[in-house]
Amino acid sequence: MPEPNVSVERRPDGVALIRLDRPKMNALSREVLSQLAAVASELSMDPPGAVVIWGGERIFCAGAEISELRGPSEAAEVTGSFHAALDAVASIPRATIAAVCGFALGGGCELALACDFRVAAENAKLGQPEMLLGIIPGGGGTQRLPRLIGAARAKDLILSGRQVGAAEAERIGLVDRVVPASEVLHAALSWASELARGPGVAQGLAKRAIDVRRVVPHGGRGDRGPLVPRAGTRQGQLRRPVTPGARPEPSAERVLQHCFQLCRATYCICAAT
Q1: For position 173, what pLDDT does the model report?
Q2: What percent of the chain has pLDDT over 90?
Q3: Cα–Cα distances in Å, from 216 out to 86, 221, 230, 258, 266?
Q4: The pLDDT value given to residue 44
Q5: pLDDT score of 215
Q6: Average pLDDT, the chain
Q7: How many CA atoms lie within 13 A of 137 on its CB side?
Q8: Which CA distances in Å does 141 have to 158, 209, 241, 245?
Q9: 193 and 214 share a domain?
Q10: What parts of the chain have a pLDDT lower than 70?
Q11: Which helix or strand (DSSP H or E) is residue 168 part of?
Q12: Are both 96 and 108 inside the same structural domain?
């Protein structure tokens, strides 16, 4: 039986280390995405203290497996696999850190965006080069990137397809810390270890509240009040106090799902032309 391309190590300090290992470029095939989704789901069911995702000393992830994008139907299947895997990573109810050495491009950059924090090597290169192939980012980059660095900067990167180095990425907020390449994993693990010593359930609730507020449109009915813990839940599910006579608001999941459906439709149209 072949070795898995995605493995997880639960360390004594409470940190879970997810390792991508698919030679040569850690390309995210549908099989790799399925393995990543399974690992992330396992960590959501039994959360560690914090999570680090690591692609190795040479490269983080070069993006999608291009050979699988043979036509519109295949592109739609790949896009669905990306959404399932990256949503699973983003939903882990603990802090997640991407440890980035070398390239994090396309789907690889979108994987880093699905994490809460990013530690990058001085030689790292990040970007969404899909536009250079005549398509758009299909794994959530059109949504997560502008929420992280702002709409104008996100449009600059996506519409040009250009790559940014670690120094610029830190300046615009795409990465949080830049360290020498030999120290990336250590820096990410040390940061995760600090977070893992904190109150895990409270951290999960705070993360969920922040992420939901980022998804619900500003000024919409999602701005009525804070999210609060739902009584009797183990993993910190949230609810919002209900105002008598108020119309029910769309869930954050519904809003994000709608955005992803638009991305998938556009991706398929581009692939067909």
Answers
A1: 98
A2: 70
A3: 19, 8, 19, 12, 22
A4: 97
A5: 54
A6: 85
A7: 29
A8: 9, 21, 32, 37
A9: no
A10: 1, 213-273
A11: helix 166-172
A12: yes
Please list the active-site residues.
Answer: 64, 107, 110, 130
Q: How many residues does the chain have?
A: 273
Nearest 5°: phi and psi at 246?
-80, 150
pLDDT value of position 5? 96
Cβ atoms 265, 80 nearer than 8 A: no
Q: State the residue for tokens 């990167």.
A: 157
Q: Please give the C-alpha separations between residue 99 and each of 117, 144, 162, 166, in angstroms, as whole numbers.
A: 9, 18, 21, 12
Core vs surface per residue 111-131: b (16+ CB within 10 A) or e: bbbbbbbbbbbeebbbbbbbb
Say if residue 44 is in the same domain as residue 137: yes
The b-or-e profile of 217-229 (16+ CB within 10 A means b, else e) is eeeeebeeeebee
Answer whether residue 262 is part of any domain.
no
> Structure tokens of 185?
């994993």
Type of residue at 49 = G
pLDDT at 74: 86
Structure tokens at 8: 């997880």
261 within some domain: no
- What does the block give as tokens for 189? 């693990």
Do both 192 and 204 map to the same domain? no
Report how far residue 56's alpha carbon sits from residue 59's, in angstroms, rounded to the nearest whole number: 6
Q: Which domain holds residue 96?
A: 6-197
> What letter would DSSP give residue 231?
T
For residue 270, what pLDDT is reported?
43
Pair 267, 79: CB distance under 8 Å: yes
In angstroms, rounded to a whole number, what is the distance separating the alpha carbons of residues 260 and 142? 9
**Domain count for the chain:** 2
